[in-house]
Amino acid sequence: MPEIPEVEITARRLGAALSGAEVDSALAPGMVTMKTVKPPLGALEGRAVEGVRRIGKMPVVEFDGELSLLVHLMSAGRLQAFEERASLRDKRSRLLIRLADGRELRLREFGTKQRAWAKLLPAADVERDEMVATLGPEAWPAPPLEELAAAVDQARHLHPMLRDQRVIAGIGRSWVDEILWEARLSPFRNGAELDAEEVEHLHAGLDVLGRALEHYEEVIGATVPDKLPMPLRVHRRQGEPCPRCGTTLEAVHFAEHVMTYCPEEQTGGRVYKDRRLSRLLK
Ligand SMILES: [Zn+2]
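^ inputs. structure came back:
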């Protein structure tokens, strides 16, 4: 799942590759991909790409004439530039923006579900879009300490709360484990019960996002690969020793995600039950 480091490196590489390129045509093979009808995709014809930026986990492609394409990759979408046009039989294609120089900007989605979407909006409307207007502060660069403290002062568990884009934008199922491990905080801690020092640890934990981005800047060339070399240290590494203290990392499995943590440093030695099993036993 692309989160801030992955979407930011994608936006940087695409922006560098595509800025100035003119659109020849655009079409959406994914029947449910476009969530807007006005302006139509055809409005992109003849326009130049001005740049690519990121809001939370969403890439935004800017075109001249004040048009913006807001993209939500969901869990399996990828936005990539290709030297040649895709075959229309490529079932992964959701949106194709064909450039006059023969290249193509392609929104693809892995897996069978069609969940990734895009909106073509007048540039001035992007900040007002419901998916953007409801976002919390960006997780990277980290918000000021007081802003983070206010955002997480809620009676909710940290793990789901930090993945809630309305609380803080850009964190998902992978990096939340890394952030909480860095901060030595339990995924089950109640946000409203954090003391000042714990909020400081959480704030410092957000640095993993910037470090991941630095890693991508070093290892990723002009083209972002389908599968990014994510520098994860604990997420999905249950059964392996904690990289800091050597205790065996534990995990709780949910229907669609896995929460990995170090029991020694994060949960006071407590090992939590597998949620899949407890649901079956009910
Ligand atoms: Zn540990």
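Residues 4-18 form the longest helix (15 residues). Residues 242, 244-245, 247, 262, 264-265 surround zinc ion (CB under 6 Å).
thumbs up if we can close this ticket
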